[in-house]
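Objective 1b. Sequence-to-structure analysis of Enoyl-CoA hydratase.
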Amino acid sequence: MEPQLSHQIEGAVATVVIRHPAKRNAMTAAMWRSLPPLLEGFARDPGVRALVLTGAGGTFCAGADISTLQGSPAEAQTLAVAAEEALAAFPKPTLAAVRGHCVGGGAQLAAACDLRLAEEGALFGVTPAKLGIVYPASSTRRLVSLVGPAAAKYLLFTAELIDAGRALATGLVDEVLPEGELDKRVAELARVLVSRSQLTQAAAKEFADGRTDRDAHWAERARGNPDTAEGVAAFLERRQPRFTWNASTSG
């Protein structure tokens, strides 16, 4: 099978699968380039309310496949950052489902997701120090925001792999699941995400990511928005709310 990003939509959840089994799902140049337009399509699709990123088989992503980049780590970094930023800017909730190795560029992609769930046995590493590469400023800041300066320095300085338990303790992942239970939990959490108000989620995502130029925008959207009335009515009537605000069509 050619290295690729496969994808499907089911129940308002788009799933993107990293597939390159010959190299533990390392990202080729073509795969890096294909992610931003793929995400753009899902962002415009009103039927998509959440996105799951995972790897095929028993691993998430072992980083960049340097052999497809003419031996240029700089090119790999440029492509990885573009994909990472596109994923971080995706306007709907994103969830990384991690098995096996989540290293280098794979760790960049996982960190750019809103939530990260891992199976026991997963290994995480940020490895530019093994190659003499300066880790991108944006990627470094994102890592620091997740795990704090001390843990980020440990990961960056040593380039050592840490297990899922330590990743959980540092905040790099949100939940660790026993072997065989990751898919079930990811599906369960995705169902929760798509049942909630996209207006709440979209505003909270920008605020939590540190964006400060859209306060007035969200204050305006909040005034008289139908999701609030629906949420209150559903609570009083003891039923599931039917939220209608959509990030794809409302902005």
